[in-house]
Amino acid sequence: MTEIVFPSINWLAAAPALLVTATGLIVLAVDVAMPSDHGRHGVLAGLGVLGLVAAMIESAWLWNTGGAAFGNTLVADRYGLFFSLLVCGASAVVILMAVDFLNTARIKIGEFYALVLFATAGMVLMATGNDLMVLFLALEIMSVAVYVLAGIARDEPRATEAALKYFLLGAYATGFFLFGIALLYGATGATRLDLVAARLGAESGTNPLVLLGMGLLLVGFGFKIAMMPFHVWTPDVYEGAPTAVTTLMAVGVKAAAFAAFVRVFLHYLPGLEGAWTGLLWLLAALTMTAGNLCALAQDNVKRMLAYSSIAHAGYALVGMVAATPDGGASVLFYLLVYALTNLGAFGVVMALGRVGAANERLADYAGVGFAHPLLGFAMAVCMLSLTGMPPLAGFAGKFYLFSAAVDAGLVGLAVIGVLNSLVSAYYYFGVIRQMYMVDGTPRIDSLAARPYLATGLILAVGATVALGLFPAGAMHLARDSFLGLG
Fold it and tell me: How far is Cα 7 from Cα 408, in angstroms, rounded to an integer?
């Protein structure tokens, strides 16, 4: 009788994703076992944060050793570990902020925390996936959880509308992505990215199937990062979803999508950059311009931040168009900066909400700077950082991006980016003006009574300031991570 020998699996390489998934299952079990709502949110959030911190520790431990698993379809290289640290850290802050927010929004659904963890597991797999089918499965794990989260406020019609829009358009974009994978497989006979790259490099000329497949992958990635013209879902979904979920989408989903996007296009398809660089140049310019111009007309802060996120996707694309090591590193650094700053901005939006009143209109911010100095300061820091004002993190992020573009000869694109930053100052400063120069008596629940939200805000805003003052270490880490691809 022939003995069946199973190949050994390097479970350590998959440990960050496995830890997050296991934590999600534990949170589900504890949620069912707890007899009442008393203290439930705090316990579930604590378990979720502990699991995410454990995944971050494991990612840091793997930094110098790395490894691959499941036939090299999952790689724990420094690039993937950088994004694992980023998305796990961002999700931990989202969970912290959500404890008090869910009570304020009267969302008494314990599976919120499990869904955030399952979405995060998908994000980690997107960052470490080295196979197109693994990326597809990771994308679906992340997306399905976020679709449900978007509509988790079951009594809110706008949340149901947001979830339905996100699901329908997301499913449509996923179809394009899967069709692109099929075409690349047809052209190369492989889905593992290193094999795809090797077989494309051995071909003379460019196969039309490859170009079409790349274009369809671009549609799928473009939807998730909210790149024009695949951005139209963003303002409605960001506004309609509960703010804690919007924060996860704006920070985690975008970072994970960029992680996979950069890995595929900059690392494994650089030999075909002539086929996509010009198109991406145009899309980057249009994305940042459309996002900023549309944001000018918004009087809802969540919609304004949604259009802002579109514009920032355009800025990040500048580094991809540069297609150099400095350009790639600047994308990683910028996504870190963007994540921290938006965690703080959306945290303030959550803090301004109270039972029965979301307080999301720009007029609701009148007088906040003097009535609630800490919230006013936090929002001002985030708005200035998003604008790109020194000495905050946003300035360092844009400086590295535009410097990489200029060094790569993309002076025109860098100028468009700078001009767009000037345009964005109008609506970012509009929020600051409303808080400090318009009289108002905002009715906001005390931040002292919401310690979890306050902790998340302090972490996000403190890191935004620190990263702006001392950007060199984080940029070195980003460069080391990008060079550690594969």
Answer: 45
